[in-house]
Each structure stands twice: as structure tokens, then as C-alpha cells.
Amino acid sequence: MRVSKRFPMAIHSLLYVAVLSPQMRVTSNLVADSIGSNPVIVRNLFLDLSKNGLLNASAGKNGGVSLAKEPKDITLWDIYQAVETNNVEAVFKIYEGNADCPVGKNIYQLLYPHMESVLDAVRTNMKQITIQTLLDELHEKDNRNIEAL
Fold first, then answer.
1. Percentage of residues in the chain with pLDDT exceeding 70?
2. Which residues pair with 64 in a beta bridge?
3. What pTM does this model have?
4. Residue 125 contacts residue 143 (beta carbons within 8 Å)
5. Do the Cβ atoms of 10 and 55 come closer than 8 Å?
């Protein structure tokens, strides 16, 4: 499955917002510092997450972001769809093959349904993991440092 840096960065951003937004104004600069990235990259992530109903963002001097849904209602699949492609051909890069070869001319038709099945399994599993799941795990792992934020 094709996963760029955008996916874990988006998860990091949403977790960071979930932890901090109740206490303070969360901005792209703040999240970029946490991720170790450029604020423009984070703003682009925020735009994709906002377009997909996962984040509320307001620009300007008093702007900031907050979760658009409860953490229990945001799944990894929601996030993946917001920042990556879920098109089978793009994920698995199935080539058309060689029309002169008995294997090559059939490779796409042979692989496509199986790759769709793999993607369905990934989709099903990712729908079961939420931001709340990750927040709970994060608090178990590093409660002291989370509270210090």
C-alpha cells in the first residue's frame, strides 16, 4: 500500500490538535515545530483534512485548528482518504503487461481483483482504529510528557 509521509504527518497533526486544542490555540507553526516540518506543508495538510471534514481551521491572527469530530469518530481510513489515494491502480501500480505474452496480456485482469481484495482488508482494519484509540495508547506510553504539553 502506498503511504507517503503525509499520512503519518496528518495523524501526528490530529493527535497534537486533540491533545492541545482544549488548552490553547493550535496553529500550523506549532504543529510544524512538533512534526519537524515546514508550516506550509502543515497548512496544506490542514486544508486536505478540513476539506474532508476532519479538522476545523480558521486563518488569521486569531486563527487556529480544532478537530471537526470527536476523536472516536475519526478513523485512520478517514485520514488516509483525506491525504492519500485509495485507487487500486495508484496504490499497487498494476501495469498493463505485454500484449504478445500469454502471461503479460492477462496480468492486469489477474491481479486487479486480488489487489482490490487486499485494499478492502486494509480499509476494514483502518476503519477500526480511531484517533481516540491512538490517544489512549499515547497516554499509556508517555502520560507524563503528554500532561506537560
1. 89
2. 58
3. 0.83
4. no
5. no
